Amino acid sequence: MNASSENPAATPPCENAIAIRGLEKTYGGGVHALEAFDLTIPRGSFFGLLGPNGAGKSTLINVLAGLAIKTAGDVKIWGFDLDRAPRHARAAIGVVPQELNIDPFLTPREALEVQAGFYGVPKKARRTDEILRALHLSDKAEAYARALSGGMQRRLLIAKAMVHSPPILVLDEPTAGVDVELRQQLWELIRALNAKGTTVLLTTHYLEEAEQLCDRIAIINQGQLVACDQTETLLRRMDKREMLVTLAEDLSEVPAALKRFQASLQPPRVLHFKFRTSETGIGDILNAVHETGLTVSDLTTRESDLQDLFLQLTRSAAIGKKAGRVAKA
Ligand code: ADP
């Protein structure tokens, strides 16, 4: 890649793989796809970008990849400013698209060579064999892409995104419509790349995928960031559990000994408990119920999870935004 006109002597010192400040993207029709958007992705992280359809995830990726022009804001990729050093910024990321857009008449080796040529990687600097090996495609290197299985084609897409050795890999819904077994294989592969130092940005609407893979998660809704934290911290926010205990006898009020568990009575004989699993065990509550002399005839529990948090955050953001729009009108 000829970047002499940009002339950044070396990678600018920067802790972050991606740093976005005040990003705005308004499409021609007036759709505000991203508004006042700030996001920081640390180097080396496995970062999940979650959001419902239409949230602005693809717009964000397209801006990073140089496929969409931002309306305003600052974007730095691997320390390179997208406006001042666009080619360096773009060369720092490899984007794995969602669609299987592979030339059926090229072999995986040819596809990687063509891609490397497109990025201006000199022949001597090419890592075709190494990448084929890393993506478990060596034994299919000379097969026509149309003869590859769906899983192999997905791996080839990842391989193509890696030919210019970008330190950041962006995967747009990599496992959408992919069966469970293949999904696990892709997870392993992406995990291994991250373990070797590649920063991974993954968009997904599979909450389980984000929970299992990502060390940090951002939730985006209606073009705005509604949460961004370490996965563990986000999950801790969801440490709440509810339990319904149906008793063998009717009650007129919550026994005093059970009030400390935030119990309420659903008359005549269901006790509703809300508690934090980190503080209270189900056994503690059941022991206390027995000690008051009550008999349990049925029991159900409900754990809140990422899905709950996601719905809670996206719903409250939608309400807030709606209220904001009305107020502005
Ligand atoms: P996601 O990837 O989270 O599903 P998108 O970034 O595709 O969300 O879309 C965000 C918003 O921008 C949506 O309202 C969508 O309709 C709109 N949008 C996306 N691409 C375009 C475009 N090329 N022209 C006009 N509006 C667009």
Amino- and carboxy-terminal Cα gap? 48 Å
Bound molecules: adenosine-5'-diphosphate
The level 1 CATH classification of the largest domain is Alpha Beta
Mean pLDDT: 86
Share in helix: 25-40%
Report the strand count: 14
The order of strands across the largest sheet is 6-7-8-3-9-10
Spans of at least 5 consecutive residues with low confidence: 1-9, 322-329
The overall number of domains is 2
Shape assignment:
elongated
Largest sheet: 6 strands, mixed
Q: In the CATH hierarchy, what is the architecture of the largest domain at level 2?
A: 3-Layer(aba) Sandwich
Give a verbal description of the structure:
The protein has 329 residues and is an alpha/beta fold. It is 33% helix and 27% strand. It contains ten helices and 14 strands. Strand 9 (216-221) and strand 10 form a beta hairpin. Helix 3 runs parallel beside helix 5. The protein is elongated. It starts with 15 loop residues before the first strand and ends with a helix. Adenosine-5'-diphosphate (ADP) binds at residues 27, 29, 31, 33, 51, 53-59.
In terms of topology, how is this protein built?
Layout: E1 16-26, E2 32-42, E3 46-50, H1 57-65, E4 72-77, E5 80-81, H2 86-91, E6 93-96, H3 108-118, H4 128-134, H5 150-161, E7 168-172, H6 180-195, E8 199-204, H7 207-213, E9 216-221, E10 224-230, H8 231-236, E11 240-247, E12 263-266, E13 270-276, H9 282-291, E14 296-303, H10 306-328
Parallel strand pairs: 3-8, 3-9, 6-7, 7-8
Antiparallel strand pairs: 1-2, 1-4, 4-5, 9-10, 11-13, 11-14, 12-13
The structure holds adenosine-5'-diphosphate (ADP).
Adenosine-5'-diphosphate binds next to helix 1.
